Amino acid sequence: MRWVHFASILLVSTCLIGNLGQSIQAQDDTITITVDSTNFRFDPPSVTISEGETVRFLWSGELLPHNAVDRGGAFDSGEPSRNVDYSFTFETGMNGTYEYVCEPHEDMGMVGTITVEAINITVEEPEPIVTPSSEENSPAGPLTAVLAILLTLIPVTCLALFEKYRERAQNME
């Protein structure tokens, strides 16, 4: 009887771990740049990203107001502020180098650089449509775990009830 409990726990764990692995693979394509107000610098002062990625300028509670403005006009976080949460996504075709400044502190050297690398886009022939087999088309993650629990607990419960019924029948004899 204990092996059935062990098997059900193992089955449920396997289903959940498979779902967690999928979640871990999803990555956030955002780079965050903050302010080092003690040195009037952006932190980090330069970043390298790929087209399609996002740069987020984030600071709050700064003593002095800051902003981030691209010298070429591609992005502008707005008026200088002590609290900024501004994001800009560099779309396909925006590869190159972007120099940006904090307007109130540009003369103090508060300048940053974003290098955007081109992504390699190749046009491929479409692959033929293949109907997935029943294994490939199975439900994933939590649904699988719930089904596994139900399919394991029902027979286990029936076995336990049968054992109790059989013990009572033997005791009555």
Overview of the structural elements:
The protein has 173 residues and is an alpha/beta fold. It has a domain at 30-117: Cupredoxins -  blue copper proteins (Immunoglobulin-like, Sandwich). Helix content is 32%, strand content 24%. The chain has 2 helices and 8 strands; from the N terminus they run αββββββββα. It has helices spanning 2-25, 142-172; strands spanning 30-36, 41-43, 46-50, 54-59, 69-70, 84-89, 96-101, 111-117. The strands form 2 sheets. Strands 2-1-4-6 form a 4-stranded mixed beta sheet, with no helix packed on it. The protein has a 4-stranded mixed beta sheet with strand order 3-8-7-5, with no helix packed on it. It is elongated. The two termini are 25 Å apart. Mean pLDDT is 79; it is low at 10-27.
Overview in brief:
By secondary structure, this protein is α/β, with parallel strands linked by helices. It has a domain at 30-117: Cupredoxins -  blue copper proteins (Immunoglobulin-like, Sandwich). Helices cover 32% and strands 24% of the residues.
SSE diagram, text form:
Elements: H1 2-25, E1 30-36, E2 41-43, E3 46-50, E4 54-59, E5 69-70, E6 84-89, E7 96-101, E8 111-117, H2 142-172
Parallel strand pairs: 1-4, 3-8
Antiparallel strand pairs: 1-2, 4-6, 5-7, 7-8
Helix pairs in contact: 1-2
Uncertain regions spanning at least 5 consecutive residues: 10-27
Quaternary structure: single chain
The share of residues in extended strands comes to 15-25%
**CATH topology assignment of the domain at 30-117:** Immunoglobulin-like
CATH superfamily of the domain at 30-117: Cupredoxins -  blue copper proteins
The count of β-strands is 8
Q: Order of SSEs, N→C? A: HEEEEEEEEH
Q: Mean of residue pLDDT?
A: 79
Categorize the overall geometry: elongated
**Helix proportion of residues, in percent?**
25-40%
